[in-house]
């Protein structure tokens, strides 16, 4: 009997969903990796999404597809299979009718798993197919009650009378904790669970802040900070020492800032934590950035960009040389967009080199350089060295100074595609920022092919989405023309998130990109050479049909994807 990987190969060849060349690349990468699953490689290379693959497999194998994300499983049925066995075989018991037990499986051809469950339950087994991601999340929900939670650990730490407060949501999204923790020190447990809880709740950052009487822990979820835990002051040094040991930092140094990183395994994937420790008045403040590699393999098509913006981006990255700039404030998703572009361009025929500070994600097949200012390796000197390595594509983490800007612009004119970021409010502002860095206007006009200004906007939670009426006065106060954004009154249906357990009562779950793409044409080149202001450049681009950040956000509002409050938060009236 053929295994699932062989079936996947046959299916993709039969449906021609993936080209022969791409399939060969995936098989080569799979063989080189020597571990994992072929379908994971296909998804990571953006050749197919997990749900597409699962749906295709279900049709081919004549096994029903089951959407676990939308199904509430009976805990009594779940108890029929021990957690360890369910996680080992990636299965979820979904129903029992008479003597028939139905299992949701990521690999319904796994006869060993089916035999194990048959021997254990003495039931007739039927299978449905689900995505591995949905199965992992369902297992976490099902067995959360059996796992040690942050509340339990907090209680053990406060046994001496110190108060530890854990602010729980109605539905705790506890990460699975591997057995054998009973002998660990409470501080080890709480740090471990703090990290896993953050991952389960999709946090992008963890903030640990010392105050006079306690330590506060907050997660940044979808761009907003949420308090989750208060730790007694007496545990402050122990928590800090634990994090320093994990990050391979000097535990005796408390006077100067320190930076480090560590890695953990969560839901069968490795996640990097970038750690920054800063001495403050009541101790040391710790901020940890969570870097999930799967975020950079989602592909440009899945970042929430409009069709127009996607078309412009894809046109720009097919150019053999020139400069593509992504602009926006810190936390606007610039790095994710750049890494998604690099993933799309990453083929064996291309020599891709990046210069970063720091390296946020490690990408196979790409040469990545970490700047080291203490030895004189900055963006400018690194870029000079890179250009002697015959690169096809160069990514510079950020253009911070005149020297880097000048070298990057000249590199883009000598046969390289250069990708980088700038801190400007809009796309047109990138042109004048480069001029302010003393780059000659004629060089800017000749090199820059596209500038994309970006923001991240929270999405309305699909589980508690509801229609609402918005008074005309609200639109007038925000200077928004209803006739412009929704000319047909019949289409004026607006939404909000009521707030539920899945979104932590916020009404929002997940984020999407808001993008303004400025394609450089002959008129814009002429404006740049004449040192026109950013207002003149933007005015021309808008008249030519460019969608501004504000307009892109309003379109998503009209599509029922976000709210006016979010638009006001992430964009200004003149953007």
Please, could you describe this protein's structure?
This protein is α/β, with parallel strands linked by helices. It has 23 helices and 19 strands. A 7-stranded antiparallel sheet has the order 4-7-6-5-10-9-8, covered by helices on one side. A hairpin with a 2-residue loop joins strand 8 and strand 9. Helix 14 packs parallel to helix 15, helix 17 packs antiparallel against helix 20 and helix 20 runs antiparallel to helix 21. The longest helix is centred in the middle third of the chain and has 15 residues. The protein is globular, with a radius of gyration of 26 Å.
Percent strand equals: 15-25%
Q: What does the main sheet amount to? A: 7 strands, antiparallel
**Low confidence ranges:** 160-183
The overall average pLDDT, rounded, is 85
Distance between the termini: 59 Å
Tell me the radius of gyration. 26 Å
Roughly how much helix do the residues carry, as a percent range?
25-40%
Structural class estimated from helices and strands: alpha/beta
Inertia-based shape: globular
Query: How many helices in DSSP terms?
Result: 23
- Strand order of the main beta sheet, please? 4-7-6-5-10-9-8
Question: How many beta-strand elements?
Answer: 19
């Amino acid at each position: 009997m053929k295994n699932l990987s062989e079936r996947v190969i046959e299916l993709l060849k039969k449906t021609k969903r993936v080209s022969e060349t791409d399939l060969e690349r995936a098989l080569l990468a799979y063989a080189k990796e020597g571990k994992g699953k072929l379908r994971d490689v296909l998804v990571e290379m953006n050749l197919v999404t997990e749900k597409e693959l699962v749906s295709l497999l279900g049709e081919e194998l004549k096994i029903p597809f089951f959407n676990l994300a939308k199904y509430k499983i009976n805990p009594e049925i779940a108890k029929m299979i021990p957690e360890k066995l369910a996680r080992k075989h990636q299965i979820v018991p979904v129903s029992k009718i008479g003597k028939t037990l139905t299992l949701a499986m990521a690999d319904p051809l796994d006869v060993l798993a089916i035999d194990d469950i048959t021997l254990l339950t003495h039931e007739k087994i039927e299978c449905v197919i689900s995505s591995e991601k949905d199965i992992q999340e369902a297992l976490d929900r099902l067995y959360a009650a059996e796992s040690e939670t942050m509340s339990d650990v907090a209680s053990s730490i406060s046994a001496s009378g110190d108060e530890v407060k854990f602010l729980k949501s109605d539905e705790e999204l506890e990460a699975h904790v591997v057995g054998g923790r009973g002998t660990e020190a409470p501080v080890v447990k709480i740090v471990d669970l703090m990290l896993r809880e953050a991952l389960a709740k999709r946090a992008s950052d963890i903030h640990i802040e010392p105050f006079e009487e306690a330590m506060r822990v907050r997660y940044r979820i979808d761009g907003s900070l949420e308090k989750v835990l208060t730790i007694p002051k007496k545990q402050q040094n122990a928590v800090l020492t634990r994090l320093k040991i994990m990050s391979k930092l000097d535990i005796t140094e408390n006077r100067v800032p320190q930076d480090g990183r560590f890695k953990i395994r969560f839901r069968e994937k490795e996640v990097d934590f970038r750690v920054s420790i800063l001495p403050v008045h009541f101790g040391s403040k710790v901020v940890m950035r969570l870097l999930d590699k799967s975020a950079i393999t989602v592909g440009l098509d899945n970042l929430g960009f409009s069709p127009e913006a996607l078309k412009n981006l894809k046109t720009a990255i097919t150019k053999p040389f020139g400069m593509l700039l992504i602009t926006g404030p810190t936390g606007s998703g610039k790095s994710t967009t750049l890494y998604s572009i690099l993933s799309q361009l990453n083929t064996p025929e291309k020599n891709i080199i990046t210069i970063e500070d720091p390296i946020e994600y490690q990408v196979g097949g790409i040469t990545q350089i970490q700047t080291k200012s203490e030895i004189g390796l900055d963006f400018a000197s690194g870029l000079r060295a890179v250009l002697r390595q015959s690169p096809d594509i160069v990514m510079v983490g950020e253009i911070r100074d005149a020297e880097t800007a000048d070298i990057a612009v000249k590199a883009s004119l000598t046969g390289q595609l250069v990708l980088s970021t700038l801190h400007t409010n809009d796309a047109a502002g990138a042109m004048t920022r480069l001029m302010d860095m003393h780059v000659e206007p004629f060089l800017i006009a000749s090199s820059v092919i596209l500038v994309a200004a970006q923001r991240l906007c929270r999405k309305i939670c699909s589980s508690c989405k509801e229609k609402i009426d918005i008074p005309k006065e609200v639109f007038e106060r925000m200077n928004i023309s209803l006739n412009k954004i929704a000319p047909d009154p019949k289409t004026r249906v607006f939404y909000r998130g009521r707030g539920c357990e899945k979104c932590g009562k916020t009404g929002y779950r997940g984020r999407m990109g808001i993008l303004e793409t400025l394609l450089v044409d002959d008129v814009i080149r002429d404006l740049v050479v004449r040192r026109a202001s950013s207002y003149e450049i933007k005015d021309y681009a808008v008249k030519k049909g460019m969608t501004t950040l504000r307009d892109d956000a309003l379109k998503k509002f009209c599509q029922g994807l976000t709210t006016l409050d979010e638009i006001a938060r992430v964009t200004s009236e003149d953007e």
